[in-house]
Specification:
By secondary structure, this protein is α/β, with parallel strands linked by helices. The protein has 8 helices and 7 strands; from the N terminus they run αβββαααβαβαβααβ. Strand 5, helix 6 and strand 6 form a beta-alpha-beta unit. Helix 2 runs antiparallel to helix 3 and helix 3 runs antiparallel to helix 7.
Amino acid sequence: MQPYLFPYIGYFQLMNLADTFVVYDDVQYIKGGWINRNNILVSGERKLFNLSLKNDSTFSNINERFFDVAKFEREKIKLLKTISQSYSKATYFKEAYSLIESILSNSEIQLSEFIIKSIVKINEYLQIDTAILKSSEIEFDKRLKAQERVINLCENLKAQHYINPIGGIELYSKGKFQESGIILNFIKTNEIIYKQFSDNFISNLSIIDVMMFNSPETINKMLNQYELV
């Protein structure tokens, strides 16, 4: 999986399910994705937040991108203020806000490193102990593309079972993986609904929202609400 900023709960379901989780950090950064932005709940509506990146080549990999230093600290302060104003009355605000504040206090400006460190902290909070590796530090044939690249990565890790988010079901072939002795499955998150401020539930928000309204114990139960296909 590519590194995502405060990703949705399905990301953590996959991480919790896996023995080893590979952060795909040496692939091209695509503008408009979820790598440096996400959604939270503001005044009952879905609200996008973003941490700006330094202008760089559009062909740069994720681990070659950096936050815009001139904006970084201001944007983190603004995000914390928005979270505080929006979630101050949430049941688990104190615990979740303390964690988020700790994450955003990190001065790391390399995009992938900042996100990986944030994921590690969230994992500690949720008691997820899956090993995390970076694809940039694994030896495999990086000249390969798409499905062949993933298969070669699995082969070099001696993986017998690869699990991908359901969004990749049109991209990867179970037959091709089987030819290399690898079982391929896709994880599909079941509908997860929890009490927010109103009865109008807003779904698929950042893990920030999930942590604000649910205890780590409850979230751990949510981590098992999925299907493998």
